[in-house]
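Single Protein Entry

Contents — chain, fold
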Amino acid sequence: GGIITKGDVLAAIASGMKPGAAPPAAAATAATAAAPKAPAALPESNDDFEVIPVTTIRKIIATRLLESKVENPHQYMQKEISMDAAEEFRVEMNKSAGEDQPKISMNDCVVRAVGLALRATELANIRFNDDAPSLYDELETVDVAVAVATPTGLVTPIVRNTDEKSVFQVAADIRELAGRARDNKLKPEEFTGGSFSVSNLGMFGIDSFQAVVNPPQWGILAVGGTRVEAELDPSTKRPKAVKRMTVNLSMDGRAMVAENAVYFLKNFAFFMENPTLLAIEGYPKVKLAKRGLVEFQ
């Protein structure tokens, strides 16, 4: 009935069982409970899939992106750009373009404006140098890298002397470099170095995004698409349609101080909103807004 008597104990001792030992059935039960459970088998999948090996260039891109985010203190700024004048300029220039003149895109205008803004802004055409006493090197030429998607990964061919070329020359350079980048025919010196980078996803319907700095450059401008918004016309007191574009600046805070970055974006906006200056070969003679104290909250 489940009660252990003195006779049960004496019989167990006589059979050879030591005091304190568990009966065989109990020991087996304890061993079974202590044994780790085998992991459950994964359910078999009937889905068809293909394992695509990672290419060397994608491994390099992944490594550099991780290093940039971990080692470079990223800072971000955003600015809205009025695009009505730039859109009208692009349409008119393409209408009157000759047979030997390339059609210009908004990205060509952006790259040219970036080159002019780097030239116009104090201590903007620099490259980070961890070994230099001032942490940066001032560069003699303004060279802007342009992000190009290729079958093997993202490549950034460099448009040299962007501040000296007209937007038409910039457009021709970008077409030629991007074509050879997609054919994997770029020379190493054509995609290494540079002052600054431009990444444009506006043509894919992206309004705004942030990009990762490409060391040793100090910054990269992430360009969104042009959109139409309603704005109150101060002269008529009526709403009107305006075109705007959002740009996000990612910068390495060790090399670029925030005040200079503010004026870089101001100067970039000035050239985009006065697009006839983009068509001039060389650096146009313009009077930019006088620098003042920038207050940060």
Remarks:
- The helical segments are 6-14, 24-34, 56-71, 84-95, 106-120, 167-182, 258-273.
- The chain is about 30% helix and 20% strand.
